[in-house]
Fold this protein.
Amino acid sequence: MAELQRVKAGETPQKGMSEQNFNRLLNDSYTEEGKQILCETNRRRIRAAKEQFLGNNVDKIDQITKISNEDINSYIKKGFDSLVCKSKGVYTIGDKDSSPSCSVHGLLK
């Protein structure tokens, strides 16, 4: 099986392949459309985590002005830092009334 097919199937790289080459292979396998879809999925995960955080803190909602990655970490499997834009964008959580955004792909609509 070709290495890229193994990676897409969720298998680990073959013995001897460096982590750098593995990551390069994985990143190169995404089309621009795929990168955009993955980024939108990540922004939706951020929005859902914000909604859960706010729902669990409804008694303090008037005092919440900014939502940090620490606030929503526990609502995202593997935490906020696990969300990566394959186009090298940076995610912004936003405040309680705004949508999450990516520096490359923009606001979640």
Observations:
- Strands lie at 91-92, 101-102, 106-107.
